[in-house]
Amino acid sequence: MNRFNSATHISTHFDKELEEIREKVFAMGDLVAQQLDLAIEAFTNGNVELAMQVLKQDDVIDGYESDIDQKCAATIALRQPTGHDLDLLIAVIKVTTELEGIAAKIEGIADITIKLNNSLPADA
Amino acid sequence: MDNSKVAYHISEKFNKELEDIRNQVLRMGGLVESQIQQAVHALTTGDTELAELVIKQDSQIDELEMVIDAECTQIIALRQPAAFDLRLLLTVLRVINELERIGDLAERIAKTAIYLSANSEGRTDQYYELQHMSGLVREMLHDSLDSFARISVDGITDITARDEQVDREYSSIIRQLITQMMEDPRNITRSLDMLWTVRALERIGDHSRYICEHLVYMVKGEDVRHLTQAELELKLKN
Q1: Does some domain include residue A70?
Q2: What are the tens digits of pLDDT across the range A5-61?
Q3: Is the minimum CB–CB distance between A109 and chain B shorter than 8 Å?
Q4: Which residue among A115, B51, B122, B140 is the one 20 to 30 A from B96 at the CA level?
Q5: What's the CATH architecture for B2-237?
């Protein structure tokens, strides 16, 4: 089932490239999940410092997106994959777009946390 | 001679395929532009029939996205394009994704138009501001699609710069709505509906900006996402 690990490619370099891309997508996904936990924790506890940390780490996610996209485009251009491999690489580009979109929304939660806690004393 | 003729035909056919894809993207873009315009019109005039139409038409946009998406993937598989042609096709995949999202936001506005017509009690506060903001984001979208049609990033920073204006208008309307909600809790339902609507328009501005960023990738091969307006201007000057 796991196409990434299958030995059907003649080129082991190609397998290695796909494997690297896969690992990066997982790392990006883990980071986004972690960001969500931190942002919710910051929001519920009114922890502005933690919210700022979430904002800072968003750059790392953006970096992952650019890096993975670029690797996918380069792999499509150089290896000219067809069939499942091509579908996979295009799906990865779409997944990174979704992950970045989720990360941007998490950033929004962190933004709101900061605004909410900075304005509370003034309103009270 | 024969070979070169065959090669010529093949590339001609490939060119036609690319041209066809581009035209379909522009058609999808035109449909999305009209959806925004109709959704906002339905809201400001309380025309629930028009709102229903917008909601119904969203499936056409979804359909176009899937068709273009499948064609792009097929062309990449069959033609194995490189360099600009590949960037064009990857950009199309991204642009139609943005357009589909804008389509969803227009649908959202149309749905809100139906709620509002039931509970706005004939009030039209912020409608002028809403129309102005809608005009701004539609122009951003239109000009970004125009740049896509011309395959040019000349003047692209003028389009992205307008997103800042959109954000300012968004904040200003939100402030008005918050004031109204504080003045009288009976305003809250209507104000929230208005809030979702201006939020949707603000997001449309963002997605139009993203389209511009994708175009820079297509034309220059550079990833300019996540740059500030000033950084983008600096990058494109060089």
Answers
A1: yes
A2: 555 556 688 889 999 999 999 999 999 999 999 999 999 999 999 999 999 999 999
A3: no
A4: B51
A5: Up-down Bundle (1.20)
Under DSSP, is residue B34 helix (H, G, I), strand (E, B) or coil? Answer: helix
Q: In which element (H, E) is residue B148 found? A: helix B127-150
Residue A43 lies in a domain: yes
Residues A73, B86: C-beta atoms closer than 8 Å: yes
Contact check, Cβ <8 Å, A93/B226: no
- Note the pLDDT tens digit of each residue in B118-137: 877 788 889 999 999 999 99
CB crowding B214-230: b at 16 or more within 10 Å, else e = bbbbbbeeebbbbbeee
What ipTM score was computed for the predicted complex, to two decimals? 0.85
Between residues 72 and 91 of chain A, which touch chain B (CB distance below 8 Å)? Answer: 73, 76-77, 80, 82-83, 86-87, 90
- Domain residues for the domain of A87 are 12-119
The CATH number of the domain holding residue A97 is 1.20.58.220
Q: Which two tokens stand for residue B176?
A: 């008005």
